[in-house]
Automatic annotation (TrEMBL):
Residues 48-235 form the Neurotransmitter-gated ion-channel ligand-binding domain. It is a multi-pass membrane protein. Residues 1-22 form the signal peptide. It holds the Pfam family Neur_chan_LBD. The chain crosses the membrane at residues 260-282, 318-337. One of its GO terms (cellular component) is membrane. It comes from Mesorhabditis spiculigera. GO terms for molecular function: extracellular ligand-gated monoatomic ion channel activity; transmembrane signaling receptor activity. This is Neurotransmitter-gated ion-channel ligand-binding domain-containing protein. It is found in: Membrane. CDD domains: LGIC_ECD_cation (cd18989). It comes from the Eukaryota. PANTHER family: NEUROTRANSMITTER GATED ION CHANNEL. Keywords: Membrane, Signal, Transmembrane, Transmembrane helix.
Amino acid sequence: MEFKGILHILYLITLQYACCYAENLAGVNWTEIGVAGDYANFLTKSQELYNELFVVRGYRNDLAPIYFRGNQNDSIPKFDVLISLQFIQLLGMNAQSQMASISMEIDYDYKDARLAWNPENYDGIERINVQSTSIWIPANGISNAQTLEVVYPDQFNTATIYANGTVSVSLQYYAETRCVMNVKDFPFDEQLCSIDMFNNAYDYQSIKQSGALFTKYKEGTIYDNGEWSFRNITVWYELFNGTGGVKYDFAIPRNTTFPLLGWFVIIDVGLVSLACVVLVTLPFEEGQKPEKPGIERSGVSLWLSVIVSWVYSRHFFIFFIFQVANLANFVVFFAHWD
């Protein structure tokens, strides 16, 4: 009982502080510091609104606004979370670790009824922006990532709250996601990877998750790294062990800066190799058969004579030229391959 009494006293003190704070804001003369009339009124009303949402109502950002009951009430709609992939950049592919390094921007849109208000009571304010740490955010992380980091510090991440309680949060991630690589078709291989958004804290009976692709920006949403590129990015809903999630699938083919020249070099190398085999297997020419070593010739002189005779009889000089050209083709081919 004593503990409840202390909590009640603290709550009354908080309300008293909130009322005094609102009165002080209403008494601020913004024009004295050069603020225009409409903007001055907006500052006053927006701070009154913030005070109402986060102080007077006792909002807790560690409490989820999701309806959980033993018997699910069908008349109460599921908590709807829209997860939108707005930007994605491929930083690298590591065949040894089977990982893809990706930078991405993901938006979370949902409705928190505790943050709704009547715009008429606050001079027509339809939305406000607050730091994302001030509100509750769904914990829909990337489940198949070995490394997952929020790029920007908390003070740079903001959330938009609308009058009907809709919340929109945009987060920048760096992730190293698992991507099983098959390089049997190298250098024309294509990898199939995914980004899985799951959270075991929510079951599919209480929450509804859906996904979207690139709804914010008109252009500049997909970036490659030169060697690899994104293709066929799709989103779909997946149910796994009683938990629903959103999954983004995409293909990552290997790029070449000049595929036509690459095919030309491959064909050229094949023809040169075939020509070398044919030349080496040509029969001896008349008058160029190697002399049988006599008894009077032996040692180094004997073997040099045999080698020289074999070189001329087997067109070794032409064979050597072709092999040099073959090697040059490979050097050019791999020097220009990204």
